[in-house]
Records
---
Amino acid sequence: MPAPRPLDDVACRTSFARFRVASIVEGIALLVLVGIMTMRYLVFGGDAWFTSTSHFWEQVSSVWSPIHGLIYMVYVVLGFDLWMKMRWGLPRMLLLMFFGVVPVLSFFGERWTHQKVESDLALRPTLEDEARGA
């Protein structure tokens, strides 16, 4: 059985750095969206007294929701890029996407992914190992 192709250490770390930023931005954007939706539906949504305030939160929601959607799509693309460079299995890609769906989970998922990247780069052959002749 042939040896697995070595990972490109620099490309993997660069891809993870981009994913790390996207995880933090996605986590913040999702928390903002949850706050907006809470204000819109739970705090001001059902009371006729606050119709102007409720209208304000509808406006904010209609602006922020597509922005958050775009941020999530960038997060998924950068997660896919990391997944490809690390040559992980499909369940790990699905897990990376899931981290961006649950509020606050992207922060924990980023830490977990960082540990997985570091351990995989330490255990699996890399181009740097090949260049050093190890």
---
Amino acid sequence: MKSFLSPAILGLSFLSSLSLPEHVLAFFSVPGVPTLRPATLSGRDRNNGIHLAVSPVCGPLSGNVSDVNAGIDIKRIKTIVAFGDSYTDGGRDDGGPLAPPVVVPPDAEAGGRSTDGKVWIEDIAEDIGATLKDYAQSGACTDLSMWPSAIKKVDFLGQMQTFLNQSNHLDPDTTLYAIFFGINDYEDSKTDGTANLQAAAKVILNQISILASPPTNARSFLVTDVYGRGTHTPEGDAMVQTIFSGLAELRANASASSKTKLNFAFAEFARIWDGVLDGDPGYKAFGYVSTDACIVDCTIEECTTDDMCDDPDHYFYYIPGHPSKEGHRIMADYVQEVLQRCVEE
């Protein structure tokens, strides 16, 4: 007698040949059939062998900074609106379709990105089948008026103005707003002084308040940080703590004053940088062969593929200070672990 596999089993068999994130696989689970895990699918061959070797440190949206998901159901998200700097910049800053994430030598930047492929927020959008509207700009800080030394004259306030001027009509229940700032504020503070790092934190909170108000009425926010990229200072840590505590206050105030529920997730990318650069567990545990940049032939205006390394997939940085596409992939994986594992009841 011939044995036939059900369509569900055949579908899972097909999925097992793909390198899909765990939360995506969960969408395809079938009663009575074990959900496949990334390790079952392709082990450490996924993402050219680069993988997370650290885990989120979950905690409540109160107290000290931790990884947390307070109310975001990623399966409901159909649109992601992203604000940020070069780590989130997909090569276009008006929310329109992004250029293909392909390197065309001698230009080292894939479609205008500061890496050799998709940035982390693109990976997340692709994983969940969401439309990405990206307003991030390379070199952006929170507010240029606070940082006279800023090299690139772009900031969160300008990105917000672009977004608001478009009068987008996005469903608050299915739209996630991703906000990733701090790196350039921290770098500028080395010249202009650290006093305004607290003000930078408040800019982020104020802009979230604007997004949560009419006409946008945003309800779900993902906030991330890696201000020092492996370096920690009391002033920088205090900035992150102010942001984190402010999110809890915004959530509590919204609920108390108008019965409106604001949903926040916070992902601390510093755990990746600390794990790679500080020797615990170290870069080799992630699959990297070097913590250096593969490409060093860069100016403020451009980076070229001249004299690039022979193994860009396994260098932590693609260009100075900017992770490779594999690094962006594990950043996306980290966020998705936070959304799955750090759910605040």
---
Amino acid sequence: MANAKPLHDAMDEISDTVGEQAFRKIRGDIVSGDLKPGQKLKLEHLKSKYGVSVSTLREILNRLTTEDLVVAEGQRGFEVSPASVDNLREVGDLRLVLENHALALSFAAGDLDWEADVVAAHHKLSSIEKALLAGDANRTFEWIKYDFAFHHALISACGSKSLLAIHQSIFDRFMRYHLLAASFRGDGVSEDHKELFRLALERDVAGAQAKLAQHIHSGIDHILSTGRL
């Protein structure tokens, strides 16, 4: 028993684990649209739904305000950040700046293992996109997962954990709008990914950055065309 941790330390670890699980669940429910833009986040309801204390919920919601996924209303509590055309465009611009920079770093440093990761990520994404194009709309949430995995693979050799973490946060905020639009863009997005894949293997930074800009702007246009904002 000499190596046993003090009870309070063990309880803190359990609490941290539960808190992190709740954080990921609430964050995921906001990104997916299960918690809707502008929805009031009532602590007693969330306590029951996510199984954590009110104090833990306050910490989680304050943490989510730093990602602009939640808005703090002073004494009135919290609500899910609203969705707007201006915010969509702002998030798209932020994603482009971050991802373009990370692409340049990653293409320069990427080794054979990096190439293998890119190949694997594109294969998985392409398989899901083929299913969606064939009419299997149930794969949309799965597509979101593999879409991120592919874009992450492209920039994974950038050498900066901070850049990757910030990019993931912005990417999720951008994907939130895709999920609110509830519409897959179709052949265009699949062709964009094929071209980004080819340019990555050729280490064509300028070409990939130009394609990424087109890819993101086309995504914004598609979201707006659905009329759901």
